[in-house]
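I have been asked to look over a protein record a colleague put together. The record follows directly below this note.
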Amino acid sequence: MKQVVVNIKNDKYSFFMELIKSLDFVQVQEDTGDSKDEIKDNLTQAFKDLKLYKQGKLKTTPAKEFLNEL
C-alpha cells in the first residue's frame, strides 16, 4: 500500500474528507494532533477573548467553579 500526505485548507477539509472516505479503495487515517495553523488560530481566539474579558464584554466561569463541574 502507498501513502500520500495532502495539505488541505481548513475551510475545505470537511468536504475533502467526505469525498475521500467515499472511495472504497482508500484507507483514511486522520491526524489526531493539532496542526500549527490550528494552534495559531486557537491562540489568536484566546487572546481576542481575553481582550473582550478585560473590556467587560465577555463573562467567564471562575476556575474553581469550572473544576468543580468536572
